[in-house]
Every structure is written in structure tokens, then in C-alpha cells.
Design brief:
Blueprint lengths: L2 H20 L5 H15 L2 H8 L5 H12 L5 H12 L5 H22 L3 H17 L1 H7 L6 H12 L5 H12 L6 H15 L3 E7 L5 H15 L3 E7 L7 E5 L2 E4 H15 L1
Parallel strand pairs: 1-2
Antiparallel strand pairs: 1-3, 3-4
Helix pairs in contact: 1-5, 1-6, 2-5, 2-6, 3-6, 4-5, 5-6, 6-11, 7-10, 7-11, 9-10, 10-11, 12-13
Length: 271
């Protein structure tokens, strides 16, 4: 998201996190209800247009949500959804993405409570790679004609009993909702969201040859200086990488030469 939507999402997620911290019960039902609300809104183009139209008074948008969902969801979920619809969004899909990400945030908050957030993050990245590397699985999950439950079932056959239940819930959501992004990219997106929650950036590193421990440590140090916070690295080997190294952090893409220049610039600014 960019511009107005990016600012609104940041604020909505901050308020949702405060609300989830105060919730005494499991946050998994909260996430399930948020996903269900997002799907219900997504099923009606008219409703999506109404709720994302910043030209309509916020009270009207909120009342529409309350009339539709107040008897069907918890007060925590209703508060989160009304917060989303009262906010301003640059594009219609951004509203749906925001509700979904609040649901993802609820599952990640539950992972934090159980001290498994790092595990869930790592399993999400591994699952994304698994989907990318399996042509059959990628095709099965990318079939928009298949029912969402069928796509989730295809993933269960591979992941069941191999990952944490919260990882499975997040990957289910990633593959059940159709959209412009490929299933593997949506899973990676949730993994990156988990990384940001842990106040870290995730660098996807592709190198022509395996990086040894010293090289990984030096690269992590450069990225930490560039971003001003700890950076986790997901390293893979790709002999076709030009220049020997390709690093992607969110939307930022670097080669080895660019990284070296940025690191020197940071040092000069700090001196």
C-alpha cells in the first residue's frame, strides 16, 4: 500500500494491536471472524465500493458495518472492522487487504503469546519456497476455479503435522483468498509481515555460491547499518545471479555493488 492507504494501515494495525493485547481469550477466533468479514464484504462489489468510498460520511460507512455484522462477530472484531471502514483508503482493494492484515496480526499476536513467532515466521518463508519449488502444488493452489477449501486441502496434504497450527492457519488464509498475487507470494508477504512485527527486516538473499558464516555476518552488518535495525536473512543459492549476489528487502532490490556503496555512504554520514 502507498500514500493514504499506507498511513491508514499503520494506524489501524497499531490500534488493533492495543486491542488484542487487552483480549484475554485466544485470538484465533478473532482472526477467523475478521477473515470471514473480509470475505463477506469481498463477495459484494456494491458493498466494497460503499465502504471504501471516502466521499461518504464515516458514520454512514460504520453504520453499514454495524447493521451487517454486529450480531455475527465479537465486539473486538466489530471495533477493528469499524476502525478500518472509518479510515481512508486510496484503492478499493486496500480496505479488504487491511481487514485481512488485522486478522493476520491477530494470529501473529497469538504466536507472540505462545513464544512461537520466530518459528511461525521461518515456517512461512519455508512454505513459500516449497510452493515455488513444486510445480504441481503451485498449479493446484493457483487454480482460481477450485473451491478455497480444496486449495487449503492441497496444502494440508503437504504441511499437516509439519508446521505449527498458527503457521497452517496463516497459509490457509494465504491460499484461500484469490487475487493478483501468486499463492507463494502471499505466503511470503505474511512472513514479511511477521518479520516486521518482530521489529526486524527480512532480506531474501540469492548468491551464486553459498555464503559462509563470515560472509553472512558481514552482509547482516551492512544491512543493519542501512536500515537501522536488525535484519534477518533468508539465503538461497542461484548460480545464475549476475554479480554473485542479489538482496531484496521488501521493495528494495540490491546487488553487491549497490550494497557496498550504500554501506560507505552510511559510514560517511555517520562520521
Amino acid at each position: 500500500m502507498r500514500g493514504t492507504s499506507s498511513t491508514s494501515l499503520h494506524d489501524v494495525l497499531d490500534r488493533a494491536r492495543t486491542s488484542f493485547d487487552a483480549e484475554t481469550g485466544s485470538l484465533e477466533p478473532v482472526a477467523e471472524q475478521l477473515f470471514a468479514v473480509a470475505d463477506a464484504i469481498d463477495s459484494s462489489n456494491q458493498l466494497v465500493r460503499l465502504l471504501s468510498d471516502s466521499g461518504r460520511p464515516a458514520d454512514v460507512r460504520e453504520q453499514t458495518v454495524r447493521s451487517l455484522f454486529s450480531s455475527r462477530v465479537s465486539s473486538t472484531v466489530l471495533a477493528a472492522v469499524t476502525d478500518v471502514v472509518r479510515s481512508r483508503w486510496s484503492e478499493q482493494p486496500d480496505l479488504l487487504d487491511a481487514i485481512e492484515l488485522v486478522g493476520v496480526s491477530a494470529l501473529l499476536a497469538q504466536a507472540e503469546r505462545e513464544n512461537v513467532l520466530e518459528q511461525v515466521e521461518e515456517e512461512l518463508f519455508a512454505t513459500g519456497r516449497l510452493i515455488e519449488d513444486s510445480g504441481d502444488l503451485n498449479r493446484a493452489l493457483g487454480d482460481r476455479r477450485a473451491a478455497p477449501e480444496r486449495r487449503a486441502g492441497a496444502l494440508d496434504a503437504v504441511l499437516s503435522a509439519r508446521v505449527h497450527r498458527l503457521t497452517l492457519a496463516l497459509t490457509h488464509r494465504a491460499v484461500q483468498r484469490t487475487g493478483d498475487l501468486a499463492p507463494a507470494r502471499r505466503v511470503h508477504g505474511f512472513a514479511e509481515f511477521a518479520s516486521r512485527r518482530r521489529q526486524r527486516s527480512m532480506a531474501v538473499v540469492q548468491s551464486a555460491r553459498p555464503l559462509d558464516d563470515g560472509q553472512q555476518a558481514r552482509l547482516a552488518s551492512i544491512l543493519t547499518r542501512i536500515y537501522g535495525r536488525a535484519v534477518a536473512m533468508n539465503c538461497t543459492v542461484d548460480p545464475s545471479v549476475i554479480g554473485g549476489l542479489r538482496v531484496q528487502v521488501g521493495d528494495d532490490l540490491y546487488d553487491a555493488t549497490v550494497l557496498a556503496r550504500l554501506a560507505r555512504a552510511k559510514d560517511q554520514l555517520a562520521s
